[in-house]
Design brief:
Distance between the termini: 62 Å
Largest sheet: 5 strands, antiparallel
Structural class: alpha+beta
Strand content: 25-35%
Helix content: 25-40%
Shape: elongated
Length: 291
């Protein structure tokens, strides 16, 4: 029993020693990490670029007023269906189309003795119904954005919402940014060692989060400094497109010739905005004495 208790106490002491507590303010030193046993240089890479938006969304609305909700729904759906067919012909891998219906009753109106217009709000006083078919368009290929918008205008909807843009970062773009940040860290490390009269050794740590470079190990407790100015870089053309594996879908029937001809007469210029992107990476190198 005594031997068992002694063994448990020894294991507990070993575990406690292995878990180094964080330093508190006022301590002159804290245990350094393994990669600081020899001289090192920690280089932080910062890169920044701008890429155009690769997604766009807008909606076309078709409103119809009829005596019955069924007639209004049929008429509004027919108007939206023509535009839906024209947009689907551009490629279902380039556009995503969603149609919704909004039904609103229109009540009988009358004037009071003093001439004020009043509206009934009773179910037995409904004069007609207004049905709005909303065709939401998500453009996944910016190359077809202007054509899709021209077709929407040519369809003569009741209204078209403002085009909204956003950027969906592809895996290719994220990888390229991280690689550029690591290269920038290597460049800064080479410049620093050359200026200090030392030689750059092998890589000890590569940290994509940058936390290794931001922690001031020798300060006595963790402290985080603000980043320096990033280096502006130009994104390659292949990194500006979001590569997504899309299933092969059957093409829809071609749109009516009349709508295509009307769309050709519509002059539209839509320019996607630029979105800033940045990345950082920390690389720790060993230092070698000057020859």
């Amino acid at each position: 029993m005594k031997h068992g208790l002694a063994l448990i106490a020894a294991l507990s002491a070993t575990a406690a020693a292995a878990q180094v507590p964080p330093a508190s303010i006022g301590q002159p030193f804290i245990p350094a990490p393994w990669w600081m046993k020899d001289p090192v240089i920690a280089a932080m890479g910062y890169v920044r670029t701008e890429v155009p938006a690769n997604r766009a969304q807008f909606s076309a609305r078709f409103s119809v007023v009829k005596k019955t909700a069924a007639d209004a729904t049929t008429a509004a759906s027919a108007q939206a269906r023509a535009l839906d067919a024209a947009l689907a012909a551009l490629g279902q891998d380039k556009l995503r189309l969603t149609t919704t219906l909004l039904t609103r009753p229109l009540y009988e109106q009358y004037r009071t003795r003093d001439g004020q217009m009043q509206e009934n709000a009773r179910a037995d006083q409904i004069e007609a119904y207004e049905v709005t078919a909303v065709l939401a368009v998500e453009v996944r290929d910016i190359a077809v954005l202007e054509r899709a918008y021209r077709l929407s205008v040519a369809a003569r909807p009741s209204g078209i919402d403002q085009v909204r843009y956003n950027l969906q970062e592809s895996n290719e773009l994220k990888t390229w940014l991280y690689e550029a940040a690591v290269k920038d860290a290597a460049r800064r490390a080479r410049l620093a060692t050359a200026a200090a009269g030392a030689r750059l050794g092998g890589v000890k740590v590569i940290d994509p989060s940058g936390g290794v470079c931001q922690t001031q190990v020798l300060a006595g407790w963790p402290s985080y400094a603000g980043p320096s100015a990033p280096q502006d870089i130009d994104a390659p053309a292949t990194a500006l497109r979001a590569e997504m594996a899309m299933p092969t879908l059957a093409m829809a029937a071609p749109p009516p010739p009349s709508l295509e001809k009307q769309a050709e007469a519509v002059q539209v210029t839509l320019t996607p905005p630029l979105y800033p992107l940045s990345a950082e990476a920390c690389v720790v190198y060993g230092l070698l004495p000057a020859p």
